[in-house]
Amino acid sequence: MVSAEGIARKNPGSLGLLKFTQRERPVAVQLFGSNPASFGEAARIVSEKAPEFIDLNFGCPAKKILSQRAGAALLRFPDAMAKIVRAVTQATSIPVTAKIRIGLSRDGKEGLQAAKILEESGVALISVHARLATEGMTSLPTWDVVGDIKAAARIPIVANGGISTPQDAKRVLDSTGCDGIMIGQGAVGRPWIFEHIRNFLADGSLSAEPEPCERIAIFSRHFALVEELCADRKGFVCFKGHLLSYLKSLPAARALRETASRIDGFAHMGRFLEEMESRFSAGEHSWTNRN
User: Fold this and answer.
1) Dist. CA 190–CA 210, nearest whole Å
2) Which residues contact 121 (CB under 8 A, 6 or more apart)?
3) Which of 113, 161, 187, 239 could anchor a disulfide with 130, C-beta 3.0 to 4.6 Å?
């Protein structure tokens, strides 16, 4: 999720968020903002990176984004959304998709209207988060509205929101008729969820959660990639947040998270991961700080 305005103005911080490696493909760049001209210029710049598609964010509920009349705030202004889509599709040959929420009010009419206008304006696919813009991430998803959007659409619709287990995924696909699912928060700390869902949808099998040592190996791999690609304070803070989520799934999670919360840099983080791997490999599933 990158500011279209920031890219259009060639802000170094915004341009830095466009970095990705070939091994990360397929990859998308998601743009947010409110100015169609900035979206068009941003799309031209993003196209030089040749992502597989460009996504337009009309669903972010963060107050900072809403205050800019961006993200989910644009559900109130369907004509503005249409202008943004046209500006982007005219600026690039890369497929353009969009993400929305079901609406701003309980009946979800804004989501239905937005999906119709986005389809008519030329987006190739729409992802629908099954909560209102005012509901953040905590309320129960409203899947019947997503199903209504899917029933009215002629393009693929992807369901999003509150999917954290393989059973959730199947239930959502069955109840909405959507063409796919999108997972965000459900993968934080549990990146193996995608494989587990694929297995369950394929043959109904429930995969076992990884053993502690397997999980630690995943944490360590993630850390090594962050260190390689983003070895600055921002990268460290981002990984630390992921690590605290990873640790929820381990024995002695509370003690581990207390220790991890005090880590203050990459070197300290590396030592913590090495010690954790050593202890769990030796069958030591408790955690007390060593002096």
Assistant:
1) 10
2) 81, 82, 85, 86, 89
3) 161
- The 3-state DSSP class for residue 204 equals coil
Q: Is 60 a catalytic residue?
A: yes
| pTM of the shown model | 0.91
Catalytic residue among 60, 213, 230, 238: 60
Separation CA 167–CA 125 (nearest Å): 24
**DSSP class of 134:** G
Distance CA 254, CA 247 (A): 8
pLDDT tens per residue across span 162-215: 999 999 999 999 999 999 999 999 999 999 999 999 999 999 999 999 998 899
In contact, 149 and 115? CB cutoff 8 Å: yes
Instruction: Name the burial class of residue 227, with classes exposed (0-12), middle (13-18) and buried (19+) by CB atoms within 10 angstroms of its CB.
Output: middle
Picking from 53, 106, 56, 104, the residue whose alpha carbon sits closest to that of residue 82 is 56
